[in-house]
Automatic annotation (TrEMBL), chain A:
SUPFAM superfamilies, sorted: MetI-like
Subcellular location: Cell membrane
Classification via Pfam families: BPD_transp_1 (PF00528)
Sequence segments annotated as region (Disordered): 1-32
Keywords: Cell membrane, Membrane, Sugar transport, Transmembrane, Transmembrane helix, Transport
Gene source species: Pseudarthrobacter enclensis
Stated name of the protein: Multiple sugar transport system permease protein
Membrane-related topology note: Multi-pass membrane protein
Entry's family note: Belongs to the binding-protein-dependent transport system permease family.
Gene3D superfamilies from the UniProt entry: MetI-like (1.10.3720.10)
From TrEMBL, chain B:
Keyword Oxidoreductase annotated: no
UniProt record similarity statement: Belongs to the bacterial solute-binding protein 1 family.
Gene3D superfamilies in alphabetical order: Periplasmic binding protein-like II
Stretch forming the signal peptide: 1-23
UniProt cross-references to InterPro entries, sorted A to Z: SBP
Record-linked Pfam families: SBP_bac_8
Domain of life, per lineage: Bacteria
Name the record gives this protein: Multiple sugar transport system substrate-binding protein
Annotated keywords: Signal, Sugar transport, Transport
């Protein structure tokens, strides 16, 4: 790897084998001509993204940090006052908050293995050369390009008591099964949302897995075939280790995405019935906008931020490259 | 290369200045974008309601033609994002001159300093009381119409079940209602004979269900000073209401979550009695005709109650030319204008003079009964800046109770949250 020059650096022309290295390389080994200019344009290229990130991510995040310790409201003629940790003590005594934590944990613990596993299976299925493979790739990927709000609206109808899913259940079972009002019962609402979420997002992670699969050298498979491995052994000892980096990426992205569950909830259940589907982000939006309590919403967001940070750090640690 | 570098730098600098400028805007003082010019901006929520929008546009056009000092410019938003748009505009100091507002939100916006007290040439005492939004003794907004909740059924169904038709003189009592539902259910024609619109969300929840609570004798908040909900929203009467409400679902009289469109379900004969607004009357009448009966809501103890106040108009404090804005509002409140909007929306016109111009609402007209409901039963949602918060808490408590949460503790929780909110806002005093 180290011998390959980075594509952005022009290769120094190879003048002659016997000749001494070019004079400029001696005293100023790191400063090739044009280095300054390159650095300049490098910064220039970072600038648009950096400015946008700064303006719309970092500054609001820092402001949010500050607001969490005040009594700021969305609509209010009163001046903002510093109230210390009032918002946090209120938050940590709010049963709805703990319910939201529990719901998000439930969602994440189910979503992460199931969705990544399903996506891997799908990727393995379409990582073959056969006629029409692109058709299946497209079909699996279609839900991803559909907006989550649209998907939620459609599934909202399918989940109704007299909706498509219950009709199918009833027909398949010759009228024996009468499905529940999926989103109306505290026991079935979260599982219903989990199924829909997996259906919508699995295609995205399938593509990531697929990229990982195609990065594994074919020679390794050939070698393993010569050794007479079974298909399972091939997967276990060639494919799985070869997906190491992809695995970490999929794990981290699904986890963060799952922790931020919001769209489906906002469209389909509004946190109900009886808080069985409320989430941290939903609670933040509800207090921040509908209840106009900007400071409380900031406190929720801050706690959420810390949680995501901890979870990501733990994952990073667990998936680090062990020497 | 140099040229490119310059370009890149220029773009970055432009981006930085733009960001700085955007940040600067937020701190700028409130000023109307129309200031200085003779154009006055008017924002309305009814982008998704072409009939109402056209009626408003027509008033604006005729006002613009009637004088040449100012020009009103209509900007319509979808209802779902309207409130957010106004709040963001207020935060950025970019409020238009004239806005329409959902009645119960008026005190909140007035308290926040978004609105100016009205100074109109029109005599507001002639308006239906629920079409004038007052706070702190001053009128801040006025509407062209109101809507009224009612119960609708087919006369033939009631007759088949042996249930009398409720009237203004003699509404159903709680016992009669229970009896009626039992009899209707026994007919076996419907899975759920009653449809209270339980699939509704947002403002529908307090709008539709707090009148039941008030009819029991409870309320959303103690209206004496609006400082606490203790004893009103979690008192014995409120618990009685909660038990009754949950009982309707528990006894199989209504679904915990009704269909998306209650009126359509009723017309398709999926329910016997619906609880809906006057806006559904025209459609129901066209489909069912003479068989349709419009009845007052149930008297649960202190007489039937319905929610008052719909969309209304106000002038913002950021308006540079509020005299002209007030002049426009006065103009728009002329009977023919009020009648035109009420006709387009199928709503109850705000004045008698306007009602006289609409056959359905004139004396003896088919929809006159809604106007009577509005006059007799309308209870304003609490006129306090705390209302938006109270509404969300009440809505959530109602849904939880419907789904089987323990009434007393659920209501206690809502009261605790409401009281804490009022306290943290210094009592919402001026």
């Amino acid at each position: 790897m180290a011998t390959v020059p980075l594509p952005t650096r022009p290769r120094v022309p190879d003048t002659s084998k016997a000749a001494p290295p070019p004079s400029y390389a001696k005293g100023n080994a790191r400063r090739r001509p044009g280095f300054r200019r390159e650095q300049f344009s490098g910064w220039g290229m970072i600038a648009p993204a950096a400015v946008l990130l700064l303006a719309f991510v970092f500054i609001p995040a820092i402001l949010g940090f500050g607001l969490a310790f005040t009594n700021a409201r969305l609509i209010s003629p009163r001046p903002i006052e510093f109230v210390g940790t009032d918002n946090f003590s209120r938050l940590f005594t709010d049963p709805t908050f703990y319910r939201a934590l529990l719901n998000v944990a439930y969602f994440t613990v189910v979503i992460v293995p199931v969705q990544s596993g399903l996506a891997l299976v799908m990727a393995l299925l379409i990582n073959k050369k056969f006629r029409g493979v692109n058709f299946f790739r497209t079909v699996y990927f279609l839900p991803v390009v559909t907006s989550m709000v649209v998907v939620s609206l459609l599934w909202l109808f399918m989940y109704r008591k007299d909706g498509l899913i219950n009709e199918i259940l009833s027909n398949v079972s010759f009228g024996l099964i009468h499905g529940p009002d999926w989103l109306g019962e505290p026991n079935t609402a979260m599982p219903a949302i989990i199924i829909l979420s997996i259906w919508q997002a699995a295609g995205f992670h399938m593509i990531i897995w697929l990229a990982g699969l195609q990065g594994i050298s074919g020679e390794l498979y050939e070698a393993s075939q010569l050794d007479g491995t079974s298909r399972w052994q091939q997967f276990r000892y060639v494919t799985w280790p070869g997906l190491f980096h992809t695995r970490s990426l999929v794990l981290v992205t699904i986890t963060i995405q799952a922790l931020g569950l919001f769209d489906q909830i906002s469209v389909m259940t509004q946190g109900g019935p009886m808080d069985s589907t409320t989430t941290i982000v939903y609670e933040a939006v509800r207090s921040g906008y509908r209840q106009q309590e900007t400071s409380y919403a900031s406190a929720i967001s801050l706690v959420f931020f810390v949680l995501v940070l901890i979870v990501s750090a733990v994952q990073r640690h667990l998936t680090r490259e062990k020497d | 290369m140099n040229k490119m570098l310059t370009k890149v730098l220029a773009t970055s600098i432009a981006a930085v200045t733009l960001t700085a400028a955007l940040a600067g805007c937020g701190k700028g003082s409130a000023s109307s974008p129309a200031e200085g010019s003779n154009e006055i901006a008017l924002w309305t929520h009814n982008a998704g309601n072409p009939d109402e929008l056209a009626a408003v546009q027509k008033i604006v056009d005729s006002y613009n033609a009637s004088q040449d000092k100012v020009k009103i410019k209509v900007q319509a938003f979808p209802q779902d994002s309207y409130n957010d748009s106004v709040v963001s505009a207020a935060a950025a100091g970019k409020l238009p001159c004239i806005v329409d507002i959902d009645g119960p939100n008026v005190p909140n916006w007035a308290w926040a300093g978004y609105l100016k007290p009205l100074e109109l040439d029109t005599d507001l005492s002639k308006q239906l009381p629920s079409t004038v939004a007052k706070w702190d003794g001053k009128a801040y907004a006025v509407g062209y119409y109101d809507v009224a909740l009612a119960m609708m059924a087919r006369a033939s169904d009631l007759k088949a079940a042996g249930v009398r038709v409720a009237t203004i003189e003699q509404p159903w009592t709680k016992e009669e209602f229970q009896d009626a539902l039992t009899k209707l259910k026994a007919l076996g024609k419907w899975d759920y004979p009653l449809d209270l619109g339980t699939a509704g969300t947002g403002e529908w929840l307090p709008y539709a269900y707090s009148p039941f609570l008030q009819s029991f004798g409870g309320d959303l908040v103690n209206r004496d000073g609006f400082q606490s909900a203790e004893g009103k929203l979690n008192g014995d009467k409120a618990v009685e209401w909660a038990n009754w409400f949950h009982g309707l679902a528990d006894q199989g009289f209504m679904a915990k979550k009704s269909g998306k469109d209650s009126t359509q379900d009723f017309l398709n004969n999926k329910s016997a009695i619906i609880y809906t607004g006057s806006w559904a009357a025209d459609k129901a009448k066209a489909a069912i005709g003479e068989d349709l009966v419009v009845m007052p809501p149930v008297d649960l103890g202190t007489g039937p109650k319905i929610g008052g106040a719909s969309w209304q108009w106000g002038v913002t404090s950021a308006c540079g030319n509020s005299e002209a804005a007030m002049d426009y509002l006065s103009y728009s409140l002329k009977p023919e204008n009020v009648a035109a909007v009420a006709k387009a929306t199928g709503a109850i016109p705000a004045t008698e003079e306007a009602a006289a111009q609409i056959p359905a609402f004139a004396q003896g007209g088919a929809d006159r009964i809604f106007m009577d409901f509005s006059r007799k039963y309308a209870v304003m949602r609490p006129e306090t800046p705390a209302y938006p918060f109270i509404a969300t808490e009440f809505g959530k408590a109602t849904q939880d109770i419907l789904n089987g949460a323990e009434p007393k503790s659920t209501l206690d929780k809502a009261v605790k949250a409401i009281d804490a909110n009022i306290k943290s806002n210094g009592g919402y005093k001026k």
